[in-house]
Design goal:
About 0% of the residues lie in helices and about 50% in strands. The protein is mostly beta strands. Strands 2, 4, 5, 6, 9, 12 and 13 form a seven-stranded mixed β-sheet that branches. The chain is globular.
Length: about 130
Amino acid sequence: QVQLVESGGGLVQSGGSLRLSCTASAFTLDSHAVGWFRQVPGKEREEVACISPNAEDTYYEESVKGRFTIAKGSSKNTVLLEMSNLKGDDTATYYCATDSGLMCSSRGFHYTKTEFASWGQGAQVTVSS
């Protein structure tokens, strides 16, 4: 089972920027799609962005379009989420996930499974005004 670790979270003022990293314990992110999700206590988990295995296709939730960028890192086992012009509504715990049942296209997330094999521990992002 692939283990994922998120890093790069923290406290930032409104309008600031952060970069989150998702690193896998094995070189699998080049063969499976990767998705970023976020969750606020008491609310459902929300899709944020995803990237296809070959990085040719990406998708962004409407509220983060033009502000967030998902990309492959310097190694095949790393995916980045660069966030700019952060807002208070971006405050949440961010998770990355990968699975053979997760697909990604410019139209959005596509699921063939309801339980992903790999999830990270989460990175807290707090945006202050």
